[in-house]
């Protein structure tokens, strides 16, 4: 096929990052799928997983956060905090934090809340800020940042105010999508103060329930559209290859691949590149944890666990940690 030209939505640096990842690691970074139309695709997926009858990860996380909100903020209050900064990492549309906002609205109505989303996607930053402000009275700003690139203490140091506790959040099982989870956690820890808290939601794995877990990936038709978003921006069509998704038991992760049926040429970062016929390209990974593996990961990244709570079916967990300084 010929070279395709499309409207640019990524910076040159971001396009170079995409190209390097494709050529050197055979992988399309999933973080770029949330730009442009990809942001809407993700919001549609998230909404479909919030129906109580689905028992999908989004509704399981919401139930856990609703149950544990009081315990979480009792921990922050030990330091005398009456007001709170909520630093929403990989914010999506902001909806995973709704149970937290609901708790603060009714249980701590006098608290000042500052919502600070941090995400690489400008589209997700706009969506989260708009959605949160429609339903809750909050104050804060938007921060575009790539969590893979290092710590962001220059952003978080500006949040520190007397009487404000900092709660960092990384919800929606986003941690498992990261190529280097430990590095990302270290970046977060280096951006935190010693009295700050970090709340994370992850999907757990039960070897006997893998087929049931994979149901969300097969049956939500938006998933493939989302995972193809980055390639689509460069004029590459889904029809030009085979899509497959499966579970890698050795690595305990869901993996999605695209394999071209022919050589595909495309323009990126002012250069010409090629996807080779028959060479599979990793579109996404999503690690699924055990409780032991989860606590070990946080320990090695320099955190101590304060709260760990699992869903009734033991297929989802939220974990509250602090830097182990």
Topology, please?
Layout: H1 12-25, H2 37-48, H3 57-77, E1 83-89, H4 98-107, E2 113-119, H5 122-135, E3 143-144, H6 153-156, E4 164-170, H7 181-189, E5 197-203, H8 210-219, H9 222-227, H10 229-233, E6 241-248, E7 253-260, E8 264-268, E9 271-275, E10 281-287, H11 291-300, E11 303-310, E12 316-323
Parallel strand pairs: 1-2, 1-4, 2-3, 4-5
Antiparallel strand pairs: 5-12, 6-7, 7-10, 8-9, 11-12
Kindly describe this structure:
- Helix 5 (122-135) links the parallel strand 2 (113-119) and strand 3 (143-144).
- The strands form three sheets. This protein has a seven-stranded mixed β-sheet, sandwiched between helices. The protein has a three-stranded antiparallel β-sheet with strand order 6-7-10, with helices on one face.
- The protein is of the alpha/beta class and 325 residues long.
- Helix 3 (57-77) packs across helix 4.
- The protein has helices spanning 12-25, 37-48, 57-77, 98-107, 122-135, 153-156, 181-189, 210-219, 222-227, 229-233, 291-300, and strands at 83-89, 113-119, 143-144, 164-170, 197-203, 241-248, 253-260, 264-268, 271-275, 281-287, 303-310, 316-323.
- The protein is globular and about 60 Å long.
- Helices cover 35% and strands 24% of the residues.
- The chain has two domains: 12-34 and 210-287, no CATH class; 52-204 and 289-323, Rossmann fold (3-Layer(aba) Sandwich).
């Amino acid at each position: 096929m010929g070279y395709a030209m499309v409207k640019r939505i990524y910076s040159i640096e971001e396009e170079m990052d995409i190209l390097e990842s494709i050529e050197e690691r055979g992988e399309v970074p999933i973080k770029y799928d949330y730009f442009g139309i990809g942001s809407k695709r993700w919001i549609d997926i998230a909404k479909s997983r919030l129906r109580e009858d689905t028992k999908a990860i989004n509704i399981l996380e919401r139930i856990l956060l609703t149950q544990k909100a009081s315990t979480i903020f009792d921990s922050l209050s030990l330091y005398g905090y009456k007001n709170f900064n909520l630093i929403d990492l990989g914010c999506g549309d902001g909806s995973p934090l709704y149970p937290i906002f609901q708790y603060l609205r009714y249980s701590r109505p006098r608290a000042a809340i500052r919502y600070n989303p941090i995400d690489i996607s400008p589209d997700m930053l706009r969506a989260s800020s708009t959605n949160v402000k429609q339903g809750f009275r909050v104050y804060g700003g938007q921060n575009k940042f790539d969590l893979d690139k290092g710590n962001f203490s220059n952003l978080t140091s500006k949040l520190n105010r007397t009487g404000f506790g900092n709660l960092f959040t990384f919800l929606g099982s986003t941690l498992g999508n990261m190529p280097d989870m430990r590095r990302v956690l270290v970046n977060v820890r280096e951006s935190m103060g010693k009295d700050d808290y970090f709340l994370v939601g992850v999907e757990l794995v039960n070897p006997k329930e893998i087929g049931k877990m994979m149901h969300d990936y097969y049956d939500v038709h938006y998933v493939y559209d989302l995972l193809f978003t980055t390639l689509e921006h460069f004029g590459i069509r889904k029809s030009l290859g085979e899509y497959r998704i499966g579970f890698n038991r050795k690595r305990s992760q869901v993996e999605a691949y695209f394999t071209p049926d022919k050589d595909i040429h495309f323009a990126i970062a002012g250069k010409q590149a090629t996807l080779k016929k028959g060479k599979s390209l990793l579109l996404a990974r999503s690690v699924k944890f055990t409780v032991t593996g989860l606590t070990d990961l946080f320990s090695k990244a320099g955190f101590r666990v304060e709260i760990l709570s699992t869903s009734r079916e033991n297929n989802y967990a939220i974990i509250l940690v602090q830097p182990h300084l």
